[in-house]
Amino acid sequence: SLTAIGDLLQAMCGRSLAQVGLPEPAVVHDLHGNALLNRETSYDEEILSAVVAEREPTLTDDQRVAYEGISNRMASGEGGIVFLDAPGGTGKTYLLNLLLAKVRSRGQVALAVASSG
């Protein structure tokens, strides 16, 4: 999305989308100048819903177990912190991107963080 490209441009080059000739994404709200919240509330929910519908059936059995468990926690309002740990090449990023799309398709805020060390 333009938002993600804009974030990368800013982080890597210190330039905005407009500075490289691309349109700026429309910001639906201005949440008191909070760029992170503005970004997290400006996703196209219809497109994300289509992504979720397309990708849910492609999950492996192991991915589906994790996806459904995490989705159920979110749906129940239980929340919490979830650690996703598996060997490289098992689809962690695919699963995480699908979970983020599911939350954002509902107009909710989803932030992914990683631990290190």
What percentage of residues falls in helices of 4 or more residues?
40-55%
pLDDT averaged residue by residue:
82
Give the biggest sheet.
none
- Broad shape: globular
User: Unreliable runs, pLDDT <50, ≥5 residues?
Assistant: none
SS field, number of helical segments: 5
- Beta-strand percent range: under 5%
Note the run of SSEs as H and E.
Answer: HHHHH
Structure class = mainly alpha
Rg from C-alpha positions?
A: 16 Å
Task: State the end-to-end distance.
Answer: 31 Å
Give your account of this protein's structure:
With 117 residues, the chain is mostly helical. Helices cover 50% and strands 0% of the residues. It is built from 5 helices and no strands. The radius of gyration is 16 Å and the shape is globular. The relative contact order is 0.13. The mean pLDDT is 82.
SSE blueprint:
Layout: H1 2-13, H2 35-40, H3 45-55, H4 61-76, H5 92-105
Helix pairs in contact: 3-5
Short summary:
With 117 residues, the chain is mainly alpha-helical. The protein is built from five helices and no strands. The protein is 50% helix and 0% strand.
Describe this protein with a few key phrases.
117 residues; 0% strand; 5 helices; mainly alpha; 50% helix
